[in-house]
Design a protein that fits this description.
Elements (H helix, E strand, L loop, with lengths): L22 H12 L2 E2 L11 H12 L12 H15 L9 E4 L1 H13 L5 E6 L5 H7 L3 E6 L14 H7 L4 E7 L11 H13 L3 E5 L25 E6 L12 E4 L2 H15 L4 H10 L4 H25 L2 E3 L6 E5 L8 H12 L1 E2 L1 E2 L13 E5 L4 H11 L6
Parallel strand pairs: 1-11, 3-4, 3-5, 5-6, 6-7
Antiparallel strand pairs: 2-8, 7-8, 9-10, 10-13, 12-13
Helix pairs in contact: 2-9, 3-9, 4-5, 4-8, 10-12
The structure holds glutamine.
Length: 399
């Protein structure tokens, strides 16, 4: 009799059959392997603000070295509530509506685990940040994808079809995941678009789970609007954010959810048993970060705009068609001009032969064929890093 314990899948959950490891993070490993300039994974290669590094050092020196309250240090929760009021006019009770987790990544999966039952459907715009697919699967939900279409005109916006979106909502829909400003497209959802989504959430009794991690990285006079600030959404929105992108500390792993009290209770329970808590000294430093003056956010957006405007012309000159981002720090490009079989073949060539790592577009789509002509570059990098990438990209030859 065959020994079932020796069969390859015997010890594994069925769930892990349905997704692969992150391609974004794999591309970082490839960049290291080939010594390539890493424009793949979205993390800054420049320092975090001195004040907040100092606050972290001080917290450790003052022995903030044991567990914080599982749902977040009081100082940080208070600062999060203050910021929600200041930027979005949303009143938040830090005692009953805020949960601090290990990055917005844990926050998202804790939220989905807290709200989804097997058979529930979760609406996701695609292209989407690759975590949302596995997050849905791990929480037992079925993702239902709605297309964001690239702009036809050079200066246009990514858009969705209202009827397609409506068709994605039905009785089993539990939640919609919305990421604005958006990774990977750079789309910043307008008030009119958010209102349309709001109306569907209300009609179908659906929760909005919004990833707003790029909130302060916006360009060209666009405005970031939190879904929770729309009338009718205050009791049906989970707003996810974190320190990583706004304060250039992706390795600190501090993120949070702001949600109605009964949803917060459920998220806190999952979070408690998943990770107990986010790093205590870094939560104190987070409170200091959230107390930086408004000028900090203005400089952040201005500096990112300059990085965008440095990389995009270089990509265009090298033969890429760029879809200009209005927010976040990525640019989706069309690679048709290079005549490769697909995005994966192209990014392999790019990292190995040209020396630049990027993310194949297919990682952001449910059906890989939909992203076969697209590649994403991250521009959260120093000017000299972007210039080094640009020099290498000039050696590419469009067909
Ligand atoms: N958000 C970043 C990206 O899309 C990476 C985040 C991560 O790897 N955890 O590249």
């Amino acid at each position: 009799m065959a020994d079932v314990s020796l069969q390859p899948k015997h010890f594994l959950s069925d769930k892990v059959e349905h997704f692969t490891e992150s391609v974004i993070r794999e591309m970082t490993r490839q960049a290291m392997l080939y010594g390539a300039v890493n424009l793949a994974q979205g993390f800054p290669d420049f320092p975090a603000p001195a004040e907040i590094k100092h606050a972290a050092q001080e917290a450790i020196a003052h022995d903030v070295n044991q567990y914080a309250i599982t749902w977040g240090a009081k100082n940080l929760r208070n600062a999060i509530a203050r910021q929600m009021k200041l930027w979005q006019g949303i009143s938040v009770d830090p005692e009953t509506q805020v949960t601090v987790c290990c990055g917005s990544t844990e926050t998202m999966i804790s939220t989905l685990l807290a709200v989804c039952n097997r058979g529930d459907e979760v609406v996701i715009f695609e292209p989407f940040y690759e975590n949302y697919g596995p997050d849905s699967i791990l929480s037992g939900a079925k993702p239902v994808f709605v297309k964001l279409r690239p702009p036809a005109a050079a200066d246009g916006e990514w858009s969705f079809d209202e009827h397609e979106l409506r068709a994605a909502f039905h009785a089993h829909t539990k939640a919609i995941i919305l990421n604005t400003p958006n990774n990977p497209t750079g789309k910043v959802f307008t008030r009119a678009e958010l209102e349309l989504i709001r109306d569907l959430c209300v009609e179908f009794n659906v929760l909005a789970v919004t990833d707003e991690i790029y909130e302060h990285i916006i360009y060209d006079g666009t405005e970031h609007i939190s879904m929770a600030s729309l009338p009718g959404m205050e009791d049906r929105t989970v707003t996810i954010n974190g320190l990583s992108k706004t304060y250039s500390v992706t390795g600190w792993r501090v993120g949070w959810a702001v949600a109605p009290p009964h949803v917060t209770n459920a998220i806190r329970k999952v979070h408690d048993f998943l990770t107990v808590g986010a790093p205590a000294p870094l939560q104190e430093a987070g409170a200091a970060a959230l107390s930086l003056p408004p000028s900090y956010y203005h400089s952040l957006a201005t500096a990112y705009c300059a990085r965008r405007d440095r990389l995009l012309p270089a990509l265009t000159e090298a033969g890429f068609h760029c879809f200009k981002p209005r927010g976040a720090y990525y640019v989706m490009t069309d690679i048709s001009a290079f005549g490769f079989a697909d995005d994966v073949a192209f990014t392999k060539y790019l990292v190995k032969e040209i020396g630049v790592a990027a993310v194949p577009g297919s990682s952001f789509y449910n059906d890989p064929r939909d992203g076969a002509r697209q590649v994403r570059f991250a521009f959260c990098k120093r000017a000299d890093t972007l210039d080094a990438a640009a020099r290498k990209l000039m050696t590419l030859r469009p067909k």
